[in-house]
Amino acid sequence: MTEWTRREIGMGLGIAGLGSLAVPTPLGAKVPAASPGPVDTGLGFPKDFLWGCATASYQIEGAVHEDGRGPTIWDTFSHTPGKTANGDTGDVACDSYHRYREDIQLMKALGVKTYRMSIAWSRIFPEGRGRPNAKGLDYYNRVIDELLATGITPYVTLFHWDLPSALPGEWQSRDTAYAFADYAGFMAGRLSDRVEHFMTVNELRCFTDIGHQEGRHAPGLQLPPAQVNQVRHHGVLAHGLGVQAIRAHARPGTQVGLADNTSFFVPVIETPEHIEAARKATREENAMFLTAIMEGRYLDSYLAKEGADAPKVQAGDMKAIGSPLDFVALNVYTPSYVRADDAAPGYKILPHLEHSPRLASPWLYVGPEVAYWAVRTVSELWKPKALYISENGCSADDTIVDGRIDDPDRIMYLRNCLTHFQRATREGYPLKGYFLWSLMDNFEWGDGYTRRFGVHYVDFATQKRTPKLSAAWYRQLIQRNALV
Question: Can you name the CATH fold of 3-480?
Answer without folding.
Answer: TIM Barrel (3.20.20)
